[in-house]
Exporter of the RND superfamily
Amino acid sequence: MLDKFVNGIETYLFRHRAFVIFLFILTTFFLGLQASNLKMDAAFVKNIPLNHSYMKTYLKHQKQFGGANSIMVAVEDTSGNIFNANFFDSLKNVHDQLFFIPGVDRAQVKSLFSPSTRFTEVVEDGFAGGPVIPADFTTTEQGLSIVRGNIEKAGIVGRLIAEDYSAAMVSAQLMDFDPQTGEALDTLAFAEQLEQELRAQYETDEIKIHIIGFAKMAGDVAEGAKGVLLFFLIAILVTAVMVYFFSKSIVLTILPLLCSLTAVIWQLGLLTVVGFGLDPMSILIPFLVFAIGVSHSVQMINAVKRRVTDGQSTKAAAALAFRSLLIPGGVALLSDTIGFMTLLAIDIGIIRELAISASLGVAVIILTNLVLLPLVISYTQVQPQKNTAPVKENNIWVKLSKFATPKYAVWVLLITAGLYAVGLQQANQMKIGDLQGGAPALHLDSRYNQDTFFITDKFSITTDVMTIIVEAFPEACTYHSVLTQIDEFEWQVSNTAGIESTASLASVAKRVNAGFNEGNPKWQVLPRNTASLVQAVGRVPTTSGLLNSDCSVMPVYLFLKDHKAETIEVVIDKVNQLQQQMNNDQLTFKLASGPVGVMAATNEAVAEAQLPMMLYVYGAVFVLCLISFRSLRATIAVILPLYVVSTLAQALMTQLNIGLAVSTLPVIALGVGIGVDYGIYILSTMAVRLRDGMPVQQAYYEALVERGSAVIFTGLTLAIGVSTWFFSALKFQMDMGILLTFMFLVNMLGAIIILPAITAVFWRQPK
């Protein structure tokens, strides 16, 4: 039935070759035009699991207390002392420039020059105070002396002023849209504005500008992603050389490359058609599409060459190659496609876009490389090889075929079991989340991470802040019992490893109360008298971010030393423990807002998605292989090596200190999806011989003669292509390059060593 269907398709396509190729050309032209409109897209909301409970809390209170999409600009005086006219002029210019950049929430811009940056002091008549920068401020020695005194009274050292007075901070929250256009904020354009309008304009030998925040990080990642084009060109060149070495034909080198590039054009065009942009984190997918296309093309030209050498015409050879490879190639590519689509189950926008991008790309390869390529080849004249089975190659296949004998199979499977046991032990130690400080997508010596380390070193607060939202009832802050409970929560959580400092309405109210009592430390407590408590709380404005307008929501800010997975996990565990003890009908401590709250939600979403993703990927591959081979043991023989390699890849991540994060989670699925191709091509050839009663070793030998060189060549070509990523400016690309190189090579070895050993056990010959 299936054979008749394939024969019918082959007959129709090859009878209407010119028309079908013309349709391909028209489609490529149309999608090429669409691809030219593709834009880079790096929206903040795509990087967070919006349906996670933490993110529901985050979104609910984002407008009132700010979100995680913030920018911090540290203005440094290289002399180590900010109290000079040049520095304050520069700080004022940076504040004003940032204030007027479209997309900045102007009400949330904070620096020394913000009207809300005020000091309070205790005087004989009670309290006195005002803005830290007086309205009549001049950069004279007297004016600077007054500001210095105000800074110390305001208690902003470590927050807006570096602890050693070498720098000052300007921070801002970003909106989700551009108020000038009403459209979603263009994060990459905003990052470019920060670079041009702040750093380029105000950085001098005396003044250094340090900028961190999601938008700036996304801009730096996008800038580094431009180097992907160079790696893509290198990959094309390397692949061209390898394909020519394999085919010994310029025509059979150019055509596979053109068909694979056509698949990339179709993929990019289809992304525009469905309304997506290209995120910097998924910019590597077009290369993988190209590489997968080439791998299937090699199988096609290998099949054509062998049939031409057997005496067939090029057209007949192309038709027979199409007929023999459509099912195994189609099953392999469908496995890839469905495997990538399983990533849609992960509730993070950037991974879903990657899944759609990869699925579209791999799906079109079925048309461009399994249909278009043989049709185009049929118009060429492929020369037969003089010697298709040299003695040296045959000797290699004879030696490899021994893996399909019981004697060698036992040792292969024992060694595989040992490697799996060691790999599983290491894989179980794999960490979830980021394992380095700064932005994990960038190298530690990148400008962004150097800026991060400067700010972390000089200030007591950074973007590594987690906000616990305390929800109560209107006017709750006037009740001693409520603030006492918040104070107790803050004190307990502040003694948790990884937390540098904390802030809340309760702790500020205690300091204010002491101020009302001549600054005596003994009075740094929460008043039990309602009137005194109202007096203390009333001095804290809603612009401080410590309470909302009716005092029913009072955040507790936790400033962490870093955002490493271990640190976040310890803090989350402590907060969960305190929640169980303190939450009641009137007072609820909710996780979590702030940048680290987003990271915590993302880490949990990744951890929850890991097992389902693997089950979906392997489930899809299992079903398709079962349909294709109509044999449970054949399906197991294909999947088992993939599972072992996946486990070893996770062990490698542990050894290389690569955490399972948004950028690395899809790698295992990609590796499995692409790795299954090797086993399907080998076993589809073996299965025919085995059904005819041929011994396992002989069936494997003939499979190697027919497709072994193409499988080995494909594994090497893919591995060499992605190995160039080791030199990328982006750390996440380097990590993906290491993991994919490992998976491409080891999956290929699994197909030619472990798979035949399994078949030797499953298809034991009767004695």
About this structure: The mean pLDDT is 84.
